[in-house]
Amino acid sequence: MKNKLLGALLGVTMAAGLLAGCGQAKDTAGTAGGASAKARTLSEIKDAGTIKIGVFSDKNPFGYVDSNGKIQGYDVYFAKRLAKDLLGSEDKVEFVYVEAASRVEYLKSAKVDVILANFTVTDERKEQVDFALPYMKVALGVVSPDAALISDVAQLKDKTLIVVKGTTAETYFSENHPEVKLLKFDEYQEAYDALLDGRGDAFSTDNTEVLAWALQNKGFSVGIESIGNLDTIAPAVQKGNKELLDWINSEIETLGKEQFFHKDFEETLKPVYGDEIDPENLVVEGGQV
Q1: Are 200 and 142 in contact (CB under 8 A)?
Q2: Count of alpha carbons within 13 angstroms of residue 146, beta-carbon side
Q3: Strand 160-164 relative to strand 181-185, pairing
Q4: Which position has the higher pLDDT, 11 or 155?
Q5: Cβ(9)–Cβ(226) under 8 Å?
Q6: What is the DSSP pairing of strand 63-65 with strand 58-59?
Q7: Rounded CA gap, 99 and 192, in Å?
Q8: What is the pTM of this model?
Q9: Sign of dihedral through CA atoms 62, 249, 39, 85?
Q10: In the predicted model, what is the mean pLDDT of residues 80-88?
Q11: Are 74 and 34 in contact (CB under 8 A)?
């Protein structure tokens, strides 16, 4: 896939896994029940001296645990900067590993203060959480084996498409392509394992992620480079937590002045994508798309 292809892909018009510092642990709490608890305010977070941020542990290169057991990725880089600017050190962040379908409930139940887990902004989600300004833009893509490449959504009729629960891919295909059979998993690693062992014909999630995965897995390609809308990715907090939301928005605007997210791209995404993606087609600075 060439840079110009991804440029066209993302240049379309926008349309209608807990330990402090560098430690990691997975919170295995379920999402059932929808229990609500009051989120910590900005002042309470400062008093506690740590901020709890929900991230993925299996979504390379945005939030993942590397071979040394350390949490890495584009979202993680941002999370550490939030902790540094708010509390004086990036070691003041406690990472909570989340799954796609648990992101909303982890905010509602106050298990985390902020979600930074590749969280796409949608109208439905806006009713349940408060999104800050965006820091990335993305569309959906479909990856499949080269030997049976899916290059058009029509080819998915009566075939099995792998998706992760609670993602925009699940929503998009459920609403727009009921003719496609969906095989749903809770975790990204489970989904990729299913694709590798042939339990599904293809896998759909953010195009930036499937491109990265295909580059690292010989014999697979992103045959559908863009489907659905161009969306934005943003931090989220519990609904009504205005003090924390306002601080994050101000932080994003300030970071834009130093081109922070371009630095984030260079440190975390460039080593994976090389020249396959122009950062201008992914990065959002200062919350301005």
Answers
A1: no
A2: 7
A3: parallel
A4: 155
A5: yes
A6: antiparallel
A7: 14
A8: 0.81
A9: positive
A10: 98
A11: no
- How far apart CA 42 and CA 48 sit, in angstroms, is 10
Cα 230 to the center of its chain, rounded Å: 14
Residues in the chain: 289
Q: What average pLDDT does this structure show over 1-29?
A: 40
Query: Structure tokens of 57?
Result: 């542990």
Amino acid at 230: L
Pairwise CA distance, residues 266 & 258, whole Å: 14
CA 189 to chain centre: 14
Identity of the residue numbered 192: Y
* Of 62, 55, 133, 122, the residue nearest 93 (C-alpha): 55
Backbone angles phi, psi at 133, to 5 degrees: -65, 150
Strand order in the sheet with 93-97: 19-20, 93-97, 51-55, 114-115, 236-238, 129-131
Residue 168 contacts residue 231 (beta carbons within 8 Å)? yes
Count CA atoms within 13 Å of residue 85 on its CB side: 14
Cα 104 to Cα 34: distance, rounded to the nearest angstrom: 9
**How large is the greatest C-alpha to C-alpha distance in the chain, in angstroms?**
56
Three-state SS letters, 171-230: HHHHHHCCCCEEEEECCHHHHHHHHHCCCCCEEEEEHHHHHHHHHHCCCEEEEEEEEEEE
Candidates 124, 119, 227; CA nearest to 180 is 227
CA atoms within 13 A on the CB side of 126: 8
Cα separation of 205 and 132, whole Å? 22
Which of 2-6, 82-86, 144-148, 253-257 is the least confident region? 2-6
Hey, what are 43's tokens? Answer: 């002042």
Cα distance between residue 137 and residue 172, in whole Å: 17
How crowded is residue 114: how many other Cβ atoms within 10 Å of its Cβ?
29
| 223 pLDDT tier (thresholds 50, 70, 90) | very high
Query: Are the C-beta atoms of residues 141 and 226 closer than 8 Å to each other?
Result: yes
